[in-house]
Write a structure and sequence with these properties.
By secondary structure, this protein is of the alpha+beta class. It has a 3-stranded mixed beta sheet with strand order 1-2-3. It has a domain of 51 residues: Alpha-Beta Plaits (2-Layer Sandwich). The two termini are 23 Å apart. 16% of the residues are buried. It is globular, with a radius of gyration of 13 Å. Helix 2 crosses helix 4. The chain has 4 helices and 3 strands; from the N terminus they run H-H-E-E-H-H-E.
């Protein structure tokens, strides 16, 4: 079902090990507190938004709490946190 939705929306979800390191992922992880870094799994870049993926609802909630700290690293983009339980840690 997720594939059908993303195909219709013409969005390509990031996949682990698909090549070069994601510069947004590296930049945002560097701005996070140490204990949260491994739980930011991937970042989807949209025109005016960065979507951050966490592996569990608990880690997604923790990431949401530190979004104001990431604002500088994200520039003018809006930040959103989503759940990706298939790749949870």
């Amino acid at each position: 079902m997720l594939q059908r939705i993303t195909k219709r929306a013409q969005v390509v979800l990031p996949t682990p090990g698909d090549g070069a390191p994601d510069p947004w992922l590296q930049k945002l992880r560097a701005a996070l507190p140490e204990e949260l870094r491994p739980h930011l799994l991937s970042v989807l870049e949209k025109p005016d938004e960065l979507v951050l993926f966490a592996g569990s609802a608990a880690w997604a909630s923790r990431l949401k709490l530190v979004l104001p700290e990431l604002a500088g690293a994200a520039g003018q983009r809006r930040l959103t946190v989503r759940l990706d339980p298939g790749r949870g840690q």
